[in-house]
Amino acid sequence: MARVSRRQFLRVTAGGAAGALALGRAPAVAQTRELTFLSIASFVPETDKELKRQFEEWGAKNKVKVRLDIIAHLQLQTKKAAEVQARSGHDLTALGPGLGDADLYFDYLADLNDVATDVAPKNGGWLSQSDYLIRGKWKLLPWWQPPFPMAVRTDLLEKLGEKSPDTWEDWLRVGKKGKAMGHPFGTAMGHSGDANVTLLSILWSYGGSYVGKDGKTITINSKETRQAMDFVKRLYTEAMDPEVLAWDDASNNRCLNAGKCIAIHNPISAYESAKKDKVVVPGTQKEIAEVIDHIHTPRGPADRKATTGFWCVGIWNFSKNVDLAKDFLRYHFQPENLNKWVEAGHGFNMPFLTNLTRHPVYKSDKQYRFIPEVAKVTVPPSWPGPNTAASQQVWDLYIIPDMFAQHATGKMTADQAIAWAEKEMQEIYAGRKRKP
Amino acid sequence: MQLKTVEGDVAKLAARGEAPTAGLSDFLVRDTPVAYAFIGPAFFLLLFLVAYPFVLSLWFSLSDARVGETGSFVGLDNFARLLRSGIFLQTLQNSIVFTAAALTLKTVLGMILALLLFRLVRFKRLIRGAVLLPFIVPTALSTLVWWWMFEPLYSVVNWTLKSLHIVNYDIPWLPDPYLAMFTVILVNTWRGLPFFAITLLAGLVAIPRELYEAAESDGAGPIGRFWHVTVPLLKPVLAVVILFSAIFTLADFNIVYVLTKGGPFNMTHLFATYSFVLGLQSGQIGQGAAVSLFLFPILLAVVFVQLRMVRKAAMYD
Amino acid sequence: MTSPGRRIRPLFTLYLPVMPFVLFALFPLYFMLITSLKKNSELYDVTTVPFLIKRGVTLGHYQLLSQDTLFWSWFVNSLIVSVAATVVSVVIGILAAYPLARLRFPGGDSFGVAIFVTYLVPPSLLFLPLSTVVNRLGLSDSLWALVVTYPTFLVPFCTWLLLGYFRTVPKEIEECAMLDGCNRLQTLVRILLPVAVPGVICAALFAFTLSWNEFLYALVFVSPAELKTMTVGVISELIRGDIYYWGGLMAGACVGSLPIVIAYVFFLDYYVSGLTAGAVK
Questions:
Q1: Is residue A36 part of a domain?
Q2: Count of domains in chain A?
Q3: Beta A185-186 vs A263-265: how paired, if at all?
Q4: pLDDT exceeding 70 applies to what percent of chain A?
Q5: From the list A105, A396, A398, which residue is nearest B263 (CB)?
Q6: Residue C244: beta bridge partners?
Q7: Which chain C residue has the Cα nearest residue B48?
Q8: What is the pLDDT of residues A148-169, one digit of tens each?
């Protein structure tokens, strides 16, 4: 089976010259097979450790040398682009956030139809299979998502006499009262992934959307969008501080853990880190993790919908080890391995497989009880349109957050902001038309 | 230009009558094979690792290339599309404001700092070393500390201002578009100032003392000496430093990427960050390359003109 | 003997005005240092005084760095790459600067300008085509990739700086040496270089700083954890999605700045005098 790949050959040749100085790696030994995997630093570090353990275990069983490389998620884009450009790099790669990579790198990803059909039945089937197929094919496996519940300070809610707020309007009311006593509501509205998630959730909850099912028609210009925008304007001016315009993905976590925010729309990572760092409520000895609870993502007049980062995994088709890589994916997607992996991640990394959403970890802590519920209403960010490179670009350019923020801050009227977003989106979608 | 310098030297040598004949000296500067052999390594390095990728980038900007594909020729279509995009026009404006403001700040403050450093006697090394530090700490990490200092919730800057009762509310350094631009300019200045100060200091050291003494005996005060001796003699250094810094400031990526990601409302996007979003995140290399190269023709012209001027100035010293 | 008035005056006209500059330069670095020494519970408590450490100094962040990550390997990698790239660039720079400063040959002027123009090429763009080249050379995932690519942005600067420096050295001594039978290379090494030491040190220091700080190429061309450079390693491992390990990041920045700070402490005077001659001419 062992083949000397061109890459290995070149490396050996180059290594000969380099060998004396032993800079970098020793010349690769051509006889051993090596499988490499590029992944992102997980938000819960134990997840990476468990993945590494499984990867090595599989490697030992199959006599394959394995290497798991971890990078910060912000750097993944650069790395993917460089590997595709060079047609060389890792065998397996994390993809995302979002399924857009499958469209963007369609020609460079190996088909995973066989793996996807193999692993589904053992795990109770995919949550929403049609969402993950890109141009009718499995180009990646959706891997994990961090569902976005509402993280809330129960002690403050009690003080305000509020009981289980459920709609976005409820949260506006709570936030308004909270802000009056120095505990505003917090949701990012700047250039960050969280801003995309929450503002899209609000847009859908009010019945709006930005692209039609056909993946072509821009549907942002609607009365539902206007309603959503007016709501966000009120939320911004009455219930939040202007700082949300500059928030990155980490800011709302800090706002909650510092004891300032009454509630944030965020995965459980804030709670997890508060628990680990033993952060206390300012001015008391009480641990803040004890007064945090997570409840359902809010409902709007039209719907209850949310989205999140869809993290995926794929295999480059220029890899010399496509079959080996598939074999590892099958191994990792075995129920017992996925179970251990979800356990290690405290449920933060929820797979897109039905059985895993019922993982015992979600019953282990009262905090997690709504996570599976949120997952049920979670849709891809381009909903109801398909995931495409264009929808990914709408996400990457933060068109949705900017549209909302420009209206909320009074920089533009609702109509101006919508017209602006509509034009940008039309340009993006038009520029993305595939040549016949 | 080279020629003139050489002739000048030959004339000098001949006049002093201590050098070999002009013919031999002329022979000594004509050694083409050696010249090429010496330049060879640099030439091939730049050819393969800069020129080739650069030509490819030029091609990208004129094609509909995506990541991994060479694409086909589309002329100036990418540039035309950029000019239709509101975000790009905003980026263009931001880049000009950012570069102009940061350069002005760095030049003025750098000059003041260089003049001060020049006169130091005690703690000279210590203070020179201290002001040089921002330039040498890894940018990828030092930008993070700035972000931590301006981060809305924990901002030490706001904490200080509030504690001193200068303001009684949190200043929205990063949420407000104009303050955000101010902040990224400030951080760029922090990082670039040492380069200006130290290089200008080097220029000051090189100015002969006698010129100041002569100006003083002509009755020039400190300000007069500054304008009539220091500034004219520093001009060549200033020109090069500003040119260098203009190029690097215009290509700045890290500060904006860490502090604002181009927000709020794209009001701080620069060429590099916008090109990153278009070219890498969205995979439209053609578009991204067009953003990066948008100012290239103008810069090229500026470099040519300025280099010519600098050389002339250096020649007539 | 100077009068007290003369001794005090510089205090107001010189040392007082220079203070704001020093503060501006140092405060962020001071903040970096104390952040790296604070306990998390104090770091994330909004009610504390941000620039003091009240609840005790901790070395926990440094421990995290050296025990839970491969920090010291990254540190050594950075050192190897920076030193190697610096040596390569300075040597190539010296070789290229010499004929540009001393010889007349067809294409000399154009090459001088071309060297400067390379700076106009934005690195954020160049790295994609460059990654193809690096891969074809078989250098991906080895430190060689960086030793080979860093000179692309170091050589132009070194050449430019040394070119200026060489021009300030009188050429008579070289001419004498050549009449005595030395060849070009011998003249360059034995006669010119010893006089040009400040210029060479200045170029080397600059090259070392730029290599040490480089991020993009190091990220793109090298993946294995044990081969990462310091900045890439620290950022990869200590920024985890929406959680930043502030203490650890700042500890990395502090330790990571040390080698350059030490280099500058030793060579600061050379740096200034090297620039004096090199950049000015």
A1: yes
A2: 2
A3: parallel
A4: 92
A5: A398
A6: C239
A7: C133
A8: 999 999 999 999 999 889 999 9
